[in-house]
Design goal:
This protein is α+β, with helices and mostly antiparallel strands. It has a single domain, classed as Aminopeptidase, CATH 3.40.630. About 30% of the residues lie in helices and about 35% in strands. The protein starts with a strand and ends with a strand. InterPro entries: Acyl_CoA_acyltransferase, GNAT_dom.
Amino acid sequence: MITLKGENIYLRALEPEDLEFIHAIENDETIWEISNTQTPYSKFLIKQYLEQAHKDIFEVKQLRLVISSYEDEPLGMIDIFDFDFKNYRAGIGILIKEPLNREKGIGSEALSMLIDYSFTHLGLHQLYCNISEDNEASFKLFEKQGFSKIGLKKDWNYVNGSYKNEYLLQLINN
């Protein structure tokens, strides 16, 4: 089981007890744009997902971790996705569930730990993320960690009746 400890938070593997927390996140329509979700997820499907969450990143090409306080309160999730061990790269996504917990350094600390884990333990050469053109908080978070905008995907996502651009950001481990 993976546990990464920071000063104020830690990242841990998914547990069966996370069912309600993940269900709440996956069914929160206000964040569907970020996760590219189109429909609600049932607790049954999330339970099945949790039962498979122990599989190796090299097999499933993904690692999802819970961002937790030291009081064991789940605060959010951080993912490695599209893990490409041939080209030594992966995508990263992050979400702090409650707006009142955002912009308090939680995301920055979690992202810093996952970047270090990705470069040190997984041996990745580069990480990337995709950010909607109007998500200033995410730009600030990722750019603070050294990510650079490298491309614009025009009319990439169809959201609430109109198209939105999305930026591709990248961090290369030198």
